[in-house]
TrEMBL record:
Keywords: Lyase, Pyridoxal phosphate. Its EC number is 4.4.1.8. InterPro entries: Cys/Met-Metab_PyrdxlP-dep_enz (IPR000277), Cys_b_lyase_bac (IPR006233), PyrdxlP-dep_Trfase (IPR015424), PyrdxlP-dep_Trfase_major (IPR015421), PyrdxlP-dep_Trfase_small (IPR015422). The keyword Lyase applies. GO terms for molecular function: cysteine-S-conjugate beta-lyase activity; pyridoxal phosphate binding. This is Cystathionine beta-lyase. Belongs to the trans-sulfuration enzymes family. One of its GO terms (biological process) is transsulfuration. It comes from Rhizobium metallidurans. Gene3D superfamilies: Aspartate Aminotransferase, domain 1, Type I PLP-dependent aspartate aminotransferase-like (Major domain). It catalyses: L,L-cystathionine + H2O = L-homocysteine + pyruvate + NH4(+).
Amino acid sequence: MTDKDGLLQNAGINTRLSHLGNDPFDYHGFVNPPVVHASTVLFPTARAMEQRAQKYTYGTRGTPTTDALCEAIDALEGAAGTILVPSGLAAVTVPFLAFLSSGDHALVVDSVYGPTRHFCDTMLKRLGVSVEYYDPAIGAGIETLIKPNTRLVHTEAPGSNTFEMQDIPAIAAIAHKHGAIVTMDNTWATPVYFRPLDYGVDISIHAATKYPSGHSDILMGTVSANAKHWEQLHEANITLGICGAPDDAYQILRGLRTMGVRLERHYESALTIAKWLEGHEDVAAVLHPALPSFPGHELWKRDFKGASGIFSFVLKADGPAAFKPKAHAFLDALRIFGLGWSWGGFESLAVHVNLNDRRVTKAPTEGPVIRLQIGLEDVADIKLDIERGFAAARAV
């Protein structure tokens, strides 16, 4: 370990984000690592080729560029190792495939990311894995759902679209008591605001598409494991032939350098907007864990160091028949907010949330749920844009 490595262990998050992942003097002093494009890697001898007796052997198994990003994520997560995959969804599915087999039972939080549920209900089912969805508020009560063949418990906090919190340490303790692995989708908080492996999680999952990228132009996922589960995760990744591209890894590593300061702005602006919406006449409820009024606030306050820029609110509507017309009128009137999937970029986005797939945690009944990604624009301009939406919704 160099002197710089030792200093970074105890440094502030923005200092760490500015320096983790590579040593410029490994590359003649250039600040950023080079982008190494590779499929074939040459060996000096047949014996070296036979024994793979060198650090790099083939492009799917890593390059200096992808290694630089993995080392940065390892340091942020406190992980034994990290793999890169082509999307946030792949960051969920690869560990599922790594640790689940036919005949196994998995417990998945009901407020899970929609495409994760689709994967569970289609491919995992076809592969002979049974999946049961549980209430995010279950905590240690999850023990009542554990079966002799339960091999994996998947968590996501806050939950997708409705932002339910989970008691991660309590769930992890019960899962481990029964020999199950614990995975967590930590995309909302990033390792800046929550480090899952410190709270009993075995596999930390992150859609780097979001805040690490920060510019809505890269797709990538990271999966970080503790020492007990790293080798099995890594072997599955190699077996599946899934890897992150070096150009994308370079861009994500570049995005990490400013992620801390961007998250501070997202956090501050989103919480300001959420507090404002709480008192708005057109809003039935605001779903944001950092609000004291939110049911999961105490868990968020206990475990998390901050909040990101995405939350939801319930738009008031007189009966289910008015939900979609009011939601569409609100969205169509927006000018600063874009209408688009994903989040974590510099721009504000809005989506009418579909909660029809929920099994346990049902959708709010007071009106449609609108998810907001609060970007880096000025708060005053964001508020004016939201008011345009309210005016249009009132006219329906």
